[in-house]
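Form 7-S
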Amino acid sequence: MVRAAIYIRISKLKRELLDAQRQQPPCEAFIKAQGWDIEGVYIDDGRSAWRQGVRRDDFERMLANVRASRIDAIVSWQMDRLLRRVEDASAVLSVAKQYGTIIANVDGALDLSTAAGRKKFYDLAVAAEYASDLSSERLRLKHAELAADGKFSGGTRPFGYDLEEYVYTDHTGRHIKYRLVLNAEEAAVIEAAAKAVLEGRSVTSITKEWAAGNVRSTRGRLFRYGDVKELLVSPRIAGLRSADGKLVKAEWEPIIIRELHEELKAILGPPRQRGSNQGTARSYLLTGFVICGICGALLRSHRSKANSRETEPQRRYICDPRAGGGYHVKRLALPVEEHVVWELLGELPRKLLEATRRAPEHWESLGRLLTCQTDR
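Output:
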């Protein structure tokens, strides 16, 4: 008897159409019509399989069971639920050829023992990947257009604002959209925190104050340090949004004025770029900044293993051949970092004094001093 596995992938964007309740019954009916047994149901919920690096846990578990000879056939509702990239096709085809696994959807089975069957299988994967890439490209263009117009791009409402529903009609018909409107209570919390930073308070103390007052994010959790910092330097609360690397006026009402936004950026640093690690805590303060004095290669961070002379691993900067170096330099990280910090702190008062001389009208504002132009 053929043991068949049902594979279901639920897309976040198509959840209402492609949920398990819609995918599973046709698969069960197909398996019953073939006279097979159902080995199990494998579901990856909310997984965007076309994105590289996204692991589908049940997909991998199902392939492992094929390799363990527990599964003879894989059935999906549509082939694009099973395949989303050509890499998926290669993985499935590899185990199918090795273990004689039947690959099928509710429209029928593919004969992967023939060249024509394997070509059709790959063609389906190529078509699915093309559809996903095209959809992604259209979505990026749409968001770029919304950003250029200063409009809300959708998603969860940001702290400080509520979502207001409105209806508009164009040549394609009637649509329901959402725009941001001020949430007076949350906006007051943000404005007070922004002014507190300008008065010298730390983000850490504000984070603790918010936790004590049970100030929670729109997802219902307490704010962490990074959340508060990113919120305070976000252009959104100044009625701005980023479009193609530039700030444009947004359609929503600002919580703070733009000048205050610039001061906060000068004190706290710029907003973290999406997809980067900027703004997170650094284990090695000088990674990417220190170079070998002999060959000029960037020193690589390295944590040594503890030995008989060291009670714990030691952080070091080393001239590593893997980074283009040649084992020329190896230095303990802590004394190097302490020296650099000491030198920077020694320079800070002089730079602030120079800024005060250039712009004496701003001497009471650290943010404005830090944003003063050097040619004044």
